[in-house]
Amino acid sequence: MDMKKLATGLTGLSFLIIAIGLILTIRIATGSEASISPSLYLVYVCMILAGGAAIIFGLVQLLTNLKRNMSLLIGIIGFLVLAFICYSIASDDVSNYAEDITAGASQVSGAGLMLMYVLVVGAVALAVIGEVVRIFK
Fold first, then answer.
1. Measured distance CA(107)–CA(121) in Å, rounded
2. How far apart (Å, rounded) are the C-alpha atoms in residues 116 and 101?
3. Nearest CA to 122 among 75, 68, 87?
4. Residue 101 neighbours by CB distance under 10 Å
5. Residue 53's CB: how many other CB atoms inside 10 A?
6. pLDDT tens digits along 68-117
7. What is the pLDDT of residues 16-30, one digit of tens each?
8. 64-80 as b/e: b if 16+ CB within 10 A
9. How many CA atoms lie within 13 A of 46 on its CB side?
């Protein structure tokens, strides 16, 4: 597919979503109770369409320029590997105080927290190392 046609199509889609958003905003701002609920459903549909378009456009850009985006692809793979490791070592223990939490939800929550801790520590370490390197340059 020609990239110019894809970019034009996505630009047209974004303008259509903006126009629909403005119309829905005006309908909601008028305050008529009958128009609020259908307008919110249309907003949800527009959000899904916009998110889908952004994901598809990003994937097309990633796959059409693999050599230029190799570092991004390596970063994504590294993140997925780190997430899998955190999920593998996360505990699925459920405390007695939380009756509505399942073992799977507990493991996903623990993995998310571990992944956040690792990424925050890594970001702080890289910031400190970057500043130290900059001092000695």
1. 21
2. 21
3. 75
4. 12
5. 15
6. 888 888 998 999 999 999 999 998 887 766 677 888 888 898 999 999 99
7. 878 877 877 787 777
8. eeeeeeeeeeeeeeeee
9. 19
Which residue bears the tokens 């456009």?
57
Q: What is the largest CA-CA distance in the chain?
A: 66
CA distance linking residue 111 with residue 35, whole number of Å: 42
Q: Looking at the chain, how many residues does it have?
A: 137
Q: Alpha-carbon distance 123 to 119, whole Å?
A: 6
Tokens of 47: 């959000």
CA distance 70 to 54: 20
What's the token pair of residue 75?
């970063």
Quick check: pTM over 0.70?
A: no
